[in-house]
Each structure stands twice: as C-alpha cells, then as structure tokens.
Amino acid sequence: MSASNAARIWSLNHQVLTRVMNECAPDIEAVGLEAKEFFVLGEIDDCRYPAELALRLALPKPSVTVYLRNLEAKGFVRREIDPGDLRRHRLVVTPSGIDTLEKALNILSARFDEWLVRLDTSEQVELQRLLAKLLN
C-alpha cells in the first residue's frame, strides 16, 4: 500500500470518529463530562495510574492531571493509596462515575449506530474484525 493510500485510510477513519464525537459531545456534556474527560474516565479501569493514562491516551501528563482533578471534583473518580506501593495513588471510578460513564457510552453508541446503519450487518462485522486486527 502506498503512503498516500495509508494516509487516506487514516484520514477517513479520523473524520468518521471526529464527526461522531462532535455530534454527540453536547449530549455527553449534558451528563457532566467534557469530551476528553469522557475518554480519560473510560480508560481508568485499564490504567489505574495517571502516567499510564497519559501514555494510553497520548496526552501530556499535565493535561491528564487537569482532567483527573475535574473528574475528582465532580465525584466521578477518587485516588486511593496503592496497597502494593504506599507511595503511589491509584485511580478508582466511583459509582457516580460508573453511572455517568455508562450514560455517556450509551449516547456515543446511539450516535455511532446512526452511522453504522450505512453498512449492512456483514460489513459491520468485517469493520469490527479489521479494527480489532489493527489493534492486536
């Protein structure tokens, strides 16, 4: 595949994701999350430490710190002493955070479903398979 084809595929994927997120951002904000906070909150179960979140989300550590402070202030996240290393704090999503994240995920899912109906069922399955293959 030529570089221009790869860049075109990347660009198309980015455009779809950006448009879907832009369309549902006001509804996600209505449940109490800014777009980047939504992504940070969604990764905490897999990344319990701020540095891990920054790496996973490709965000600067200071930005992640700001998003985490906002999420803590809203009661969606709390920091706990890591029992395995008392010098470290790990992140935990609160019940309120879980509820809010679920609402936001439902909003995103419903909006993305509106885009996916353009593909038939077999195309949706193939898209999911290909994206999973790229991530593995």
Automatic annotation (TrEMBL):
GO molecular function: DNA-binding transcription factor activity
Highest taxon, organism lineage: Bacteria
Domain HTH marR-type: 1-136
PANTHER family (alphabetical): CONSERVED PROTEIN (PTHR39515), HTH-TYPE TRANSCRIPTIONAL REGULATOR RV0880 (PTHR39515:SF2)
Protein name: MarR family winged helix-turn-helix transcriptional regulator
